[in-house]
């Protein structure tokens, strides 16, 4: 089953600082840390920016790429030779224009407001569990599993915000809350935070991305038929996350629990030990509750909602970066940049669930500026749309429930199988034997 690990998040170790033209372009900080305000050189300024970048899970250096190199070489930039929109062309705008369009208050983090969402979600989780245990009816359990699994996913999103530093400006508060939320749903906080940072640093890069990135054709064809079948056949892709935590995905090595993993830098070992210990503590709590309450009750109260949460996580993260109705470019080599990679993400509408899972479907601006709190993402996106133009794809309205997205997911799994081993601007190809 280890080979089943889907490309839920596959990439290289977190990026090191490096100088020169090939350096990573970062999203700008809030006004107080904007590119204009940061000296280009100097150890003190570099240290301040390095600390900010690591806390928000953003790339680790600002370069001129942010302001100039992402712009298209033609006057229109976004138009192909035939006059049709080309989503893989360099955009005629930079991160600075997008940042300038977003109101300044959208960057402000309110820890009290963030904690109110935590309190709300925890109260609902405990209330649902208490009600289901008291009623103990097979008419109620399926409803409980769907609701509680969705709430576990909501807890995950708040922990995700802690990892980005968008929860608050206090790193200690972010770490404490993040550990509690993520450990409660069996996610190693620092381990996943760091690998997710790598995803944001390399989004849209074929080899270096860490979240549902494509398999190169040679790697895809090296997999046996059964592994490929399971990789692209529902519902197996919705069970990828736990396997990914332990063994990542095809072509990658490392575990989120091992401080010596390729995922982490040497100075992050203590963080990984801490988050792994917290994860093990939660496993101990669950084992104790199983002994006291019995395995069947724990299966109903925790295990089944956990699987629903995993399905939500895999589905949402996949749909952020795939969609058969929108052909999305992937990059490698000189064609990749932080901005172009960020523009490969998609916003999705989840109807009533948007508020429950903290608007995580509003994803394009989140990828470009992960330090913006989730409760400002919708406003920031609306403000940025005139700048993004055709590079922003308006999400299809789902109604109360996002049932159509299951069809989008299934169809994408049928069509999006691999990309070419060569080339720098790539699109998914289909293995017709799998359709």
Automatic annotation (TrEMBL):
Pfam families, alphabetized: DUF3474, FA_desaturase
GO biological process terms on file: unsaturated fatty acid biosynthetic process
One GO MF term: oxidoreductase activity, acting on paired donors, with oxidation of a pair of donors resulting in the reduction of molecular oxygen to two molecules of water
Residue stretches making up the Fatty acid desaturase domain: 137-392
Keyword Transmembrane among UniProt keywords: yes
Residue stretches making up the Fatty acid desaturase N-terminal domain: 1-130
The organism's place on the tree of life at top rank: Eukaryota
CDD domains: Delta12-FADS-like
Database matches in InterPro entries: FA_desaturase_dom (IPR005804), FAS_N (IPR021863), Fatty_acid_desaturase (IPR012171)
Annotated compartments: Membrane
Spans through the membrane: 117-135, 141-159, 272-294
Main location: membrane
Keywords assigned by UniProt, alphabetized: Membrane, Oxidoreductase, Transmembrane, Transmembrane helix
Record has Membrane as a keyword: yes
Pathway as given in its UniProt record: Lipid metabolism
UniProt-annotated stretches for the region Disordered: 63-85
GO CC annotation terms, alphabetical: membrane
Family of the protein in this entry: Belongs to the fatty acid desaturase type 1 family.
Name of the protein in its database record: Fatty acid desaturase domain-containing protein
Organism: Setaria italica (Foxtail millet)
Lineage: Eukaryota, Viridiplantae, Streptophyta, Embryophyta, Tracheophyta
């Amino acid at each position: 089953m280890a080979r089943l690990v889907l490309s839920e998040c596959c990439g290289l170790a977190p990026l090191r600082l490096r100088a020169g033209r090939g350096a990573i372009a970062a999203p700008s900080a809030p006004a107080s840390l904007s590119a204009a305000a940061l000296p280009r050189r100097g150890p003190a300024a570099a240290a301040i920016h390095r600390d900010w970048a690591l806390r928000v899970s953003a790339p680790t250096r600002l370069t001129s790429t942010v302001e100039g190199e992402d712009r298209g070489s033609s006057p229109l930039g976004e138009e192909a030779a035939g006059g049709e929109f080309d989503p893989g062309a360099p955009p005629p705008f930079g991160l600075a224009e997008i940042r300038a369009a977003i109101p300044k208050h959208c960057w402000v983090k309110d820890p009290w407001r963030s904690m109110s969402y935590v309190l709300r979600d925890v109260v609902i989780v405990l209330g649902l569990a208490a009600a289901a245990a008291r009623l103990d009816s097979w008419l109620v359990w399926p409803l409980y599993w769907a609701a509680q699994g969705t709430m576990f996913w909501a807890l995950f999103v708040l922990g995700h915000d802690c990892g980005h530093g968008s929860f608050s400006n206090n790193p200690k508060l972010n770490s404490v809350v993040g550990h509690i939320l993520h450990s409660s749903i069996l996610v190693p906080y620092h381990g996943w935070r760091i690998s997710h940072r790598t995803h944001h640093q390399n989004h849209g890069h074929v080899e270096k991305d860490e979240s549902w990135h494509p398999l190169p054709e040679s790697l895809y064809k090296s997999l046996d038929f059964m592994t490929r079948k399971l990789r692209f056949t529902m519902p197996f892709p919705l069970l990828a996350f736990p396997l990914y935590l332990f063994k990542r995905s095809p072509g990658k090595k490392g575990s989120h629990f091992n401080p010596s993993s390729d995922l982490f830098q040497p100075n992050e070992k203590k963080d990984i030990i801490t988050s792994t210990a917290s994860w093990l503590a939660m496993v101990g709590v669950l084992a104790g509750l199983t002994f006291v309450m019995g395995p069947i009750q724990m299966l109903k109260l925790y295990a089944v909602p956990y699987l629903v949460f995993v399905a939500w996580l895999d589905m949402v993260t996949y749909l952020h970066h795939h969609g058969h109705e929108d052909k999305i470019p992937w990059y490698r080599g000189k064609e990749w940049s932080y901005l172009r990679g960020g523009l490969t993400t998609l916003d999705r509408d989840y109807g009533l669930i948007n508020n429950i899972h903290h608007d995580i479907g509003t994803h394009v601006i989140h990828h470009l500026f992960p330090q913006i709190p989730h409760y400002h993402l919708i406003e920031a996106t609306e403000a940025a749309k005139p700048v993004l133009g055709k590079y922003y794809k308006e999400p299809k309205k789902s109604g109360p429930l996002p049932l159509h997205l299951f069809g989008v997911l299934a169809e994408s799994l049928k069509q999006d199988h691999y990309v070419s081993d060569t080339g720098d601007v790539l699109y998914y190809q289909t293995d017709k034997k799998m359709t």
